[in-house]
Design brief:
Radius of gyration: 28 Å
Strand order of the largest sheet: 9-8-7-10-11-13-12-14
Helix content: 55-70%
Number of helices: 30
Structural class: alpha/beta
CATH class of the largest domain: Mainly Alpha
CATH superfamily of the largest domain: MFS general substrate transporter like domains
CATH topology of the largest domain: Growth Hormone, Chain: A
Largest sheet: 8 strands, mixed
Shape: globular
């Protein structure tokens, strides 16, 4: 890169106090590319890696941004030789080239679920390669913010606006283009950003790269060139895959396995495609095919009941209900690829048009949201092995959170049952029960909240044979009213017809197993305290249903392999990410700051940016999780919450220059945010639950009322703080990079990003241990601490040491 290319020099911008015309669109497009890449990586990681690692994309992005800020500071003298626009243009071109390389590397490295040295090295390679594009973006923004410090509010506003647009674009881009092409689209956006930054003949290079990426995206439609090679530690057998499609929820395949076809979700969870006529005309042997399952007990008990089936997948529960005489079956499928593209389009003939029958009603929605808003009651609410072990597009650390399995959810299921209705939930179970046992635990707690006191006769539990370490399907049937003698006799007759299905608990037959012990105890919480696994009821404030290990078990050899290791490995990943983040921040931020004399004087003021960054990420993650239930879908929560927060924060940043002209007033928005968040801790869950029945558009307006004023205030502290610590004007800046005149803007950027890395992990740790309300309260506390730290910031006076401040004030 030549130091003489470009048109707008650093000095011209700095002395004139004028913002370059390319800065705002360039920042917005670059920010759009970076956030789209981050969100698309969570989807890619969720498929190729185990879902525990999908969360790494957030840490990768934030750490990359922070390192970019550090190196922008340390290389400041050397970087001064480059003109701003040409430098940023070439970095955008570099990113546009690096992003496809990162994609290819990630898809071609086989990572399994163990802690061997080779596996950790592979994971580290993916981690650090994926961080490089974010490092480049962090370097771009740090340099630009430092050189155009007079325009920080506008630049930061453009940054947030670009991120907000990326939130809106993520879902349609993933739905239309798929995971790999979404990554390539972010590279295309980076190349377009290069065209914006560049001037004159310099635009040729980014334009060529953009054209090539556009052609590559077209050529790679449906994964023709670049697609998944390894997933979950195994090479994908492309010969078996008949159909594959991505969307913002998952990657769905239909695989041909001999005489059967299987829907495979994110290369892990699977459901068989039904291929039979429920009337029995084309398959007279269907009863032995569909009824030899513990979840079929309910069809014997309620053969003509009205069913609500959450997560019907390939249709086996729907088929069974129709075949036994149900006049109305409502299937609530969250993934439109399964419900529409597969079952009602591509494989409609294969499934004998099961989902198009007049007595079958398929709804594409979140199961819990649909049930809680339903205006009718059902005889049966059923869920069979509903989980995908996959991260949503929200990028959340899907350690084990699932809002289908909470006490509040079970209450809603019971409330939408007819007087004699039942919920029927099937989970995998093991020699030492924990998942289905926790289902029974939560159903007990929900019934107690509904006023049922004696629970001994309200449960039936059956299993697909003896429990073992490999996992056995176990079905829990729970009623608001006791099971009658006739119903129990029906269950016993069913068990004699299908001897492989065993009873683990019947109302009048207490077995010597944890299920009977739990139900007989009549107190789920007390039972869980003395049980080997954590089977206590979970609530919406901490919906970590699948996290059943008690912490001391993580150190036992018996959970180093098998299903416990697979389900709870996320705890180890979380600890590793936390330790790695702490060490990275220490090595890349704290120690370099401590050894530089000029920065030691600014150490306390810079902690202000740690508090602001920590508070923002804690609040963001807590709100995303909290609004999942209100908006009815994790993807909606991601899009709406992030868009509203980022866009309103961008507006707040733009307004901060006028509203907070004196930077010592930065405590005002901090105080507003702290007080509002503390109020939300106590009021938001109640308000959202009260308003849950509103139409979706009304919910969007309500979300805006809650988030926009708060987001606007949250967008003010960071740019105001940057203005407060901005270095002296250009002559002093050029001549000195040490002592009290040292520009610390790049360092503040790095500290903010570094704290966000830690905050993204701490948010999950706090939520698991103390709940989402505690996470939000910690965010409020972080902003409250920033009020005290803001007093230590260097306060800029409009007339202090500034020969060009009149131009700056007019910007």
């Amino acid at each position: 890169m030549s130091a003489n290319t470009g048109t707008a020099t650093v000095d011209a911008i700095r002395y004139a106090g004028l913002i370059d015309r390319a800065s705002l669109p360039g920042v917005a497009i670059t920010s759009f590319a970076a956030l789209l890449l981050e969100l698309a990586l969570t989807r890619i990681f969720s498929v190729i890696l185990f879902y525990h690692f999908a969360f790494l994309a957030i840490s990768i992005a934030l750490l990359g941004f922070g390192v970019g800020g550090v190196l922008a500071y340390l290389w400041k003298n050397w970087l001064e030789r480059f003109r701003t626009r040409s430098f940023l243009a070439w970095l955008s071109v570099l990113n546009a080239i690096l992003i496809p390389v990162v994609l290819v590397i990630a898809l071609h490295i086989n990572v399994s679920l163990n802690l061997s040295r080779a596996n950790l090295l592979k994971l580290a390679l993916i981690y650090f390669c994926s961080a490089v594009p974010f490092f480049v973006t962090g370097l771009q923004f740090s340099v630009l913010f430092a050189r155009q410090s007079a325009h920080i509010p506008r630049l930061y506003g453009a940054d947030l606006a670009g991120g907000a647009l990326a939130c809106l674009a993520t879902v349609p881009v993933l739905n239309w283009l798929g995971g790999p092409n979404a990554i390539l689209f972010s590279a295309l956006a980076a190349a377009i950003g290069g065209c914006v930054w560049a001037a004159g003949s310099l635009r040729v290079a980014p334009a060529i790269v953009a054209a090539f990426l556009l052609l590559l995206i077209v050529a790679n439609y449906s994964g023709r060139l670049i697609d998944v090679v390894y997933a979950k530690g195994m090479a994908r057998n492309k010969a078996q895959v008949e159909f594959a499609r991505w969307n913002s929820i998952s990657r769905v395949e239909v695989c041909n396995q001999g005489n059967t076809k299987t829907i495979v979700i994110d290369a892990d969870a699977a459901t068989y495609l039904v291929n039979a006529d429920p009337t029995g005309s084309s398959s007279p042997a269907w009863p032995s095919y569909v009824m030899s399952s513990p979840s079929a007990v309910v069809n014997a008990l309620r053969p003509r009941g009205e069913y609500a089936i959450i997560g019907p997948g390939g249709g086996i529960d729907v088929f069974r209900a129709v075949a036994n005489g149900s006049p109305s079956v409502t299937g609530i499928e969250i993934n439109s690829i399964i419900a529409t593209a597969i079952m009602r389009d591509r494989y409609a003939d294969y499934s004998q048009h099961l989902y198009e029958r007049p007595d079958v009603h398929i709804v594409v929605s979140d199961g819990r949201s649909f049930i809680r808003n339903a205006k009718r009651s059902f005889d049966v609410v059923q869920m069979t092995l509903v989980d995908t072990w996959a991260s949503t597009a929200a990028g959340a650390f899907a350690l084990s959170e699932n809002n289908l399995y909470t006490v509040e959810a079970f209450r809603e299921y019971f409330e939408h049952l007819k007087p004699d209705g039942m919920i029927v939930i099937t989970r995998w179970e093991f020699r030492e029960p924990r998942e289905a046992l926790r289902v029974a635990s939560m159903a007990m707690e929900a019934l107690r909240e509904l006023g049922v006191r004696d629970l001994a006769h309200n449960f039936v539990v059956v299993s697909q044979g003896e429990l073992n370490e490999g996992g056995t399907p176990v079905t829990v049937l729970a009623k608001k009213s006791p099971f009658t003698l006739d119903e129990e006799q029906t269950v016993r007759y069913f068990l004699t017809s299908y001897p492989k299905i065993l009873a683990l608990h019947l109302p009048s037959q207490r077995q010597g197993n944890p299920f009977s012990e739990l139900i007989s105890s009549n107190n789920a919480t007390a039972f869980a305290q003395g049980y080997a696994y954590n089977v206590a009821p979970v609530h919406d404030s901490s919906p970590f249903f699948f996290f059943t290990l008690k912490l001391d078990q993580l150190y036992r050899q018996r959970v180093k392999h098998g299903i416990d290791w697979k389900v709870n490995f996320g705890v180890v990943v979380l600890a590793v990410v936390l330790v790695t983040s702490l060490l990275s921040v220490l090595a890349l931020l704290i120690i370099p700051m401590a050894v530089r004399a000029g920065l030691r004087q600014k150490a306390v003021p810079l902690v202000y940016f740690v508090a602001v960054g920590l508070g923002y990420i804690l609040v963001e993650i807590a709100f995303i999780q909290r609004f999942v239930l209100f908006l009815g879908h994790p993807t909606y929560a991601l899009t709406v919450v992030l868009f509203l927060l980022l866009s309103s924060s961008g507006s707040g940043s733009l307004a901060s220059r006028r509203l907070l002209a004196k930077t010592e007033r930065s405590w005002l928005p901090l105080a507003f945010v702290s007080v509002t968040l503390f109020l939300y801790v106590f009021t938001l869950p109640v308000l959202l639950n009260t308003l849950i029945g509103l139409p979706f558009l009304a919910k969007l307006l309500v979300s805006g009322c809650f988030l926009v004023p708060l987001g606007a205030a949250m967008g003010m502290p960071f740019p105001t703080g940057l203005r407060a610590i901005a270095a002296l004007p250009a002559p002093e800046f050029v001549s000195s990079h040490s002592g009290s005149t040292e520009n610390a803007i790049e360092w503040a950027w790095a500290m903010n990003a570094g704290s966000s890395v830690l905050g993204s992990v701490l948010a999950i740790v706090i939520a698991i241990e103390f709940g989402l309300n505690a996470t939000l309260a910690c965010g409020a506390a972080a902003y409250a601490s920033a009020i005290l730290l803001s007093r230590r910031l260097k306060v800029l006076s409009p007339n202090k040491n500034c020969g060009s401040c009149s131009a700056v004030r007019g910007a």
